[in-house]
Amino acid sequence: MIRALVLTGFGINCEEELAAAWRLAGAEPHLVHLNRLLAGQERIRDHHVVSLPGGFSFGDDLGAGRVLANRIRYRTLPSGGTLLDELSRFVQEGGYVLGICNGFQVLVQTGLLPNVGGGLEPEATLAPNASGRFEDRWIRCVATTPSPTPFLAGVSTLDLPVRHGEGRLVFRDDEVQTRVVERGLACLRYADSEGLETHVYPANPNGSALACAGMVDVSGHVFGLMPHPEAYLSAWNHPDWGRRIRLSGHAMEDGEGLALFRNLVRHLTGEVKP
User: 109's torsion region: left (phi>0), alpha (psi -120 to 50) or beta?
Assistant: First the structure.
């Protein structure tokens, strides 16, 4: 059974939805409070995937995800290392890391994404939305094909909700952005109604560089995105579900977001090849 660690505590508030996503995908979710990891009472390496849910960790008082990222980077564990050390080792040994919304912000702040320099230093940030407001609505995304990460295998376009005030991806400098483009790491992008990448508001809800809605590291094992796939597990979650079902000609059961979780479970169980 694929074991999925779901981080909880300190303002994280989407852990139950994320656990449900892993459960529906065929994995065994394990909700773990941050303090239990910091105290050495739970171990990252006992899992196949570590997932950081959305929410408002530590109230986002110093910037979205910054306090949680600092605890991961600097807090010393009983073993003498840090959670960032353990996450880095976990990825090197074949584990996967998923960060959604606030979790994506944490991955960027810790340097796990995009990490094109390989030094786990912050190379980007998620700044306040260009609109100057909290965006809470549905958007469309387009994925890179072929996908650089198993999470998006076979995915072309998908509708997902966004719920964030700080989702505008800004790279540290032009060199980092160029390397992200060259390696195809901006693998999920905001799209218009025709499914074409767009920088134009409101289809692009935050003004992110490269119209980036989701990004992967060079290994393909660390994936973060601002939209919430765990909020679209059933076809009936979509605000336009009635028309979509009529047009499809059959009663769709699964929401599009569930595919991301099923993709990774199938990848890890060998149902699909890398």
Answer: alpha
All domains of the chain in start order, with CATH: 3-269 (3.40.50.880)
In whole angstroms, what is the distance from residue 113 CA to residue 85 CA?
Answer: 14
Per the structure block, which two tokens stand in for 91? 């990825």
| Residue that has been written with the tokens 């459960």 in this structure | 23
Dump pLDDT digits (tens) for 90-144.
999 999 999 999 999 999 999 999 999 999 999 999 999 999 999 999 999 999 9
Q: Catalytic amino acids?
A: 101, 228, 230
Please tell me whether residue 1 adopts helix, strand or coil conformation. Answer: coil
Q: How many residues comprise the chain?
A: 274
Question: Is the bond into 122 cis (omega within 30 degrees of 0)?
Answer: no
Instruction: Indicate the burial class of 122 (C-beta count within 10 angstroms; 0-12, 13-18, 19 or more).
Output: middle
What is the token pair recorded at 183?
């390696």
* Residue 245 scores a pLDDT above 80: no
> Does residue 27 sit in helix, strand or coil?
coil
What does the mean pLDDT of the chain come to? 94
H or E stretch at 8: strand 3-8
Q: What is the b/e burial string over 134-172, where b = at least 16 CB atoms within 10 angstroms of the residue's CB?
A: ebeebbbbbbbeebbbbbbbebeebbbbbbbbbbbbebe
For residue 274, what pLDDT band results from cuts at 50, 70 and 90? very low
Instruction: Provide the pLDDT confidence category of residue 271 given band limits of 50, 70 and 90.
Output: confident
Question: Which tens digits make up the pLDDT trace of 179-203?
Answer: 999 999 999 999 999 999 999 999 9
